[in-house]
Amino acid sequence: MKKDWERAGASIRKYLELGGATAGFIGEMMKFMEQFGDQGKEEIRLQQYRFHSQAFSGLVRTRQFADAQTHLEALKEAFDESWWKREDSPWHALTEIGEMWEGMGHFDKALASFDHALDELELRRSQLSRDELKIALSGSQNTHYLYTYAARAAMSANQPERAFSYAEKGKARGLLDLMSENRFFATNDVGTKQMLLQLREIDSRYSLHVWQLAKERSVSQPNESLVNLIGGQLAELEAERSKIEQELSQLLPDFNKKSQPVAAVSTVESVASQLDNDTLLVEYLFMGEDLIIWAINKKGIVHAEAFKLEDWVLKGEIIKLRNQLATRRAWRDAAAVLSNRLLNPIADAVREHGKIIFVPHGALHSLPFQVLPFDGQPLGLSKAISFLPSASALEFLEKTIGLPTANVLAVGNPTGDLPAAAVEALFVANQFGENSNHFIGGEATER
User: Among positive and negative, which fits the CA dihedral 242, 244, 249, 250?
Assistant: First the structure.
């Protein structure tokens, strides 16, 4: 479905011309409040803020960037440069400022705004003490848009390494903090380990009680006795947690620092340094109408490209392929369409490497990359394929011993009624390279 931004923008402008948030009853109330001195003036000022901030947001969303800038300047003039601090989630307003500058072609200003938004987001995350709250903040849709827009602007500014860094921050932040914390919690001291486990149990119980309290308060007539009971339980858990933390800080001098880890997000250089000469890492960032692909090998970025592609189109193509595979219908045409979108832009790099690490995003996590056709056969038959949630997770992986060098004989589907067995046999044979031989279908005879 094609979006008509001009028509949407015209509707917003008409609404604003009629008074927007200050029209009708609200407008009459503002006139009435003028007679109440400073309190009335402050209420009028607040309503003006709502008017300009809503107008700015609406015009950015409909891509009327020049008009949006007019309301941005009005906000600055009336409430100073830091007007966005009035918002509950200031990074959202800063993201919209970045969108505006990007839409007007001022990529340096856009990236500065996106960086400012990320700083505000990280500041808020640093103030959260529990894993599930950090993940919820990092994983919200609005937050993902911030990282996507920042990466898109960096690509437009011809800075693919910087774009990759934004993508990794969006994918990896909450996950890496947890992995970093797990590394810290891996202690051999029995007493210390027991206290750390108690902390996690307390956090789990605390989260449950918070949910119970929120549920009770959401009804029209909450049970005050139950509310008070849950509040008392939360206070007890907080006191219990504080006591254990004090004991751990005496046993582990750096506990207070490491118990709130902020794991580093990998750069292109650090990712490349962890790859061997035959491995290619392919990362995708996909949201809204933006698809960005990076291909990285031992030497760094070998290809980076941004495309316009509506998310509903790609999601539909993935669902179609999965449904056809599940029902064993003809699936090769659907797979070819996706291969053309996702593999063809990096075809040269894929051909030059025997091992591919895919780092999907969004709906791409549900795509079986192995079946996508590449150079005349499914990709999984010619390449060793693996997946990661983010490239930054590489440093947490244990080094594995390579595949054995012994010869292997793979036999598949000798009777002709097990087509999947033929695919599996070819895949196994491929893993052993020149040290393998395979017999498929009619080739698999006693002779």
Answer: positive
